[in-house]
C-alpha cells in the first residue's frame, strides 16, 4: 500500500504544507497533527459490460470484457516509457482522485470510465 501524510492544520507542522508519499514502507506521524491516508496499490479486476449498444449501422451489440487496473507507483516505472517525474505525477494524480475513497468506490469510478470508452468504441 501507499501512505500519504498530510498536515491537518493550515500551514502544517512548522509551517510546512508539503504532502509526503511513502510507497510500501512506514513513516512516523505526529498524533493529532498529521493525517495518514492509505491507498491500495493492488491489482483490481473489473468486468466492463455494455448491453444493447447500437453500432453506426444500427446493429445492437452486447459486449463483456475483463480489465485489470493498478495504480502506478514511481519505483516500478524506470523503463523508457516513463521517467520518474512522469510516474511521480501520475501517482500524485491518483492520490488526488482516490484518497479517502474505499476500494469499492475506486473500482466503480474506473468501471464507469471503462464502460464509457467501450460504448464509444462499439458505436
UniProtKB/TrEMBL annotation:
State the source organism's domain of life.
Answer: Eukaryota
Q: Where is the signal peptide?
A: 1-15
In the UniProt record, does the keyword Phosphoprotein occur?
Answer: no
Give a GO cellular-component term. cytoplasmic vesicle
Q: Which GO terms describe its molecular function?
A: protease binding
Say if the entry is tagged with keyword Signal: yes
Record's protein name = Flotillin
Per the UniProt entry, what species is this protein from, by scientific name? Drosophila gunungcola
